[in-house]
Every structure is written in structure tokens, then in C-alpha cells.
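Worked example (supplementary).
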Amino acid sequence: MSRIAYVNGQYVRHADAAVHVEDRGYQFADGVYEVCEIWKGKIVDMPRHLDRLNRSLSELRIDWPMARSAVEFVLRQVIRRNRVRDGLVYIQVTRGVSRRDHYFPPEDVAPSIVVTARATSPDAARKQAEQGISVFSYPENRWPRVDIKTIALLPNVLAKQNAKEQGGKEAWYLDADGFVTEGGSTNAWIVTKEGVLVTRPAESGILRGITRAVVLDLVQKEGLTFEERPFTLEEAFGAKEAFVTAASTLVMPVTRVDDKIIGNGHPGSVATRLRDLFHTATDLKAV
Ligand code: PDD
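After joint prediction of all chains, the assembly is encoded as:
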């Protein structure tokens, strides 16, 4: 079965899917995106993701390419047409196609929209979570508006590639004061020796991760102690556990940060439990 993508009003073969060379996403990274998990044939936390899309669009003064309900319909269609049961759906909206010029295009230029979906392997993800991942610190190289989920991901690409070249899966950004902000495509957490969960507040320096918010709900439901405050790399080195969260990784244990083994070098019990319970706290919509 060939993959199908949605591009500006049409469902096309993924292999043939294309945008114009003067799409502002292509030329200026002038656009935003969302990634939602598809779990057992359900879309996970779609309302929260579309709320954040709405916020990203309005911060950049890009219009919705069509009604929100129509976007929901297209997400479902793309997932169905690709027969994805477990995987990810990607939505990208840019300021549209117009002659290359830094100023916003004329009012009549419509935003562009692309939706794709692909299957992922729950087995491979489980094995990864049983093993844990290594992360490597990296100096913050992004603009301050990291709360907007823009497609301008070159800094994240460089940070994550640096981690990969050292055998890691994720980068942990360090701000000018030595505090961990977040991962290249995940939010960062530690569990202290006293068993307190710590993650940076969402006010500044991080994307307000949907998975982070769901895990915070879960943490409270489970009666675990948590603090939303910045933590340093040193504190992470001495932590009992560490993990990252994102729609693409869910709760993923971190067993090494730079050259330091975290805890006993195996995924921690708190991270593992939160991963196991994760979908009990999510909003699941039928595809
Ligand atoms: N990344 N921080 C950054 C910089 C991210 O790019 C992401 C998501 C997150 C976690 O957000 P959420 O829990 O809403 O997925 C945090 C997506 C998955 C990506 O770029 O593929």
C-alpha cells in the first residue's frame, strides 16, 4: 500500500507530495507544526495539540488554513488512508506561497497545509524504553520564542546531531546560567534522590509540551511529589532518575547524561511507571 499525504486540499501519493518552491515554509521557515501520537487506532490529545497550534498560529499572525473542524477531519482521513494503528500524525501550516519577499505576503495569499502520517513500532519503542537513552548537553542556540512550535528547527537539528554523533538519542539544552531547559525535541525531567520529580516551569525557555502537561496531571493523580523549577546539569548528574517526554517518545527513561551514568544506569521505577500509566491520563479520540 502506498502512503498518502494531504497537501493544500488534495490527498496525493506521498511519493508525489510537494509544495511550491516559493512556499514561505521552504524559504523562510515561516510556519508552525504539531505532532500527535496515534495509539491503538486513537488520536492522542488532539484538542490540546490543536489548541497549541492555534496559539502558535496566532503568535505568528498566520490564519488557520481552514476551519479547525476541517483540520480534524483531514487528520482522521490521513490516518485512515494510511491505515496507521500506532504511529504519528504530522501537521504543518505555513504562511503560504508568494514571491520571495521578507514582508508578509498580500492578504489574499492562503496559508499552506500539509498532513502526513506514519506507523511506528510499539515493540521498538518498548525495547528502547527498557534500555533507556543517553542525552548530551548542548549550549542553547535557539531564539527566545521556543514556546512557539515553529518549523525553524535548524538549531534543534544541530543539537540532536551532536548527541547522535556521541552515541546519544537526545540533546539537553543548557541556558546561560547552566540550567537545563529542554531536549532538542522533548521536555526534560529528573527525579531527585529524595524522590521529587523536577521539570522546568513552562513560562519561558521551553515548549509547553502536551506530554509534559499530561504527565504532570498523572503525577498529581498518583500523589507523587513534584516541583516545577529549573535544574542544573550537576543536579541531573546526581539524580536518581531522569527522563524525557514528547508525543513521539512518550515517557522515555534517560540512563546517561554526558559522561555520567544516572542512578543505577537502568530505567528508573518512576519513569517506567509513568510510561505504563501514560495513556490512562490522555484524551483519546477515535480515528
Ligand atoms: N517535538 N520540546 C521541543 C523542543 C519539542 O520539539 C517537543 C515536541 C517537545 C514535546 O512536546 P509534546 O509533548 O507536545 O510532543 C518539547 C515533536 C514531537 C517533534 O518535533 O517531533
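Two points are worth noting when inspecting this output. The chain has two domains: 4-120, 125-282. Helices lie at 24-28, 46-59, 68-81, 122-131, 154-165, 210-221, 233-237, 269-277.
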